[in-house]
Design brief:
274 residues; D-amino Acid Aminotransferase, Chain A, domain 1; 2 domains; 4-stranded antiparallel β-sheet
Length: 274
């Protein structure tokens, strides 16, 4: 593990000038690995620096050990430059860590409660889709609630259009059509969402939270936790806005979990009972 401290003049530390990925690793095999590396490459291109020897990353998953772990990769532009002005030639830094991981199967099976956040995401198309280090908006949104019964917060942009959850992507089914928010102005293009889009017809739309309330099923998802069906949506003030039945939410979860090696919906009853 690279545990060397970052110097105070590192631009990732000082300005959030860098990228990160969190990768699910099962017995030394990284899930959706190519998608994570491709998103890192897109992010580095957007920020205007080159990744330091991407080939050196290939051996990392095998070093994570047995069982289920999460590999966190961080790359910064490095040090240099004056103030906000970046150096003419960047010398990026890698850091990585590994932690044991246990998913939450009760959320797979029984669904979750989510709330609408008061915070509105700002637009910045040049950063949209990538997983950059400047995540203060997400931190402030997650600070809005302390209720352990609420699993996630749903974020909209300044125009009231749905974008994502604080740490997950969002999909819903309305009038028989799978929909997910457009991420061309802000938000993170999750690797599990992208992989599902290659298997299922998921339409990217611009829609307010009214679309979510019109949906007959909805999910939040990411490449570590898998898919959590939504059971209830509440307002920022705690008012109940929508309840969903979980009976019609099985197929998308099964398709997603097959990509991560997690149980499909047909296996969850036995898993949770244990």
């Amino acid at each position: 593990m690279l545990d060397e401290p970052l110097p105070l003049d590192d631009r990732g530390f000082a300005y959030g000038d860098g990228l990160f990925e969190t990768v699910l690793v099962r017995d030394g095999q990284a899930l959706l690995w190519r998608a994570h590396l491709e998103r890192l490459e897109r992010g580095a291109e957007r920020l205007g620096f080159e990744l330091p020897d991407p080939a050196s990353l290939q051996a990392l998953p095998a070093r994570c050990g047995p069982g289920l772990t999460v590999l966190k990769l961080v790359v910064t532009r490095g040090s240099g430059g004056r103030g906000y002005r970046p150096p003419g030639v960047a010398e990026p830094r890698w850091r990585w860590s590994v932690a044991p991981f246990a998913p939450q199967p009760e959320r797979w099976r029984h669904g979750v409660v989510v709330r609408l956040c008061q915070l509105r995401l700002s637009w910045q198309p040049r950063l949209a889709g990538i997983k950059h280090l400047a995540r203060l908006e997400n931190v402030l949104a997650r600070q809005e609630w302390q209720d352990e019964n609420i699993a996630e917060g749903i974020l909209c942009d300044g125009d009231g259009n749905l974008v994502e959850a604080t740490a997950m992507n969002l999909i819903w089914r309305r009038a028989g059509v799978l929909e997910t928010p457009r991420l061309d102005r802000c938000g993170v293009a999750g690797t599990l969402l992208e992989a599902l889009g290659e298997r299922l017809p998921i339409h990217r739309v611009q829609a307010s939270d009214l679309a979510l309330r019109e949906a007959d099923a909805a999910w939040v998802l990411n490449s570590v936790q898998g898919v959590w069906p939504l059971r209830r949506l509440v307002s920022a003030e705690g008012t109940r806005l929508k309840d969903w039945s979980l009976e019609r939410q099985d197929s998308l979860q099964s398709a997603a979990h097959s990509l991560l090696g997690y149980p499909g919906s047909e296996d969850l009853r036995d898993l949770v009972a244990k």
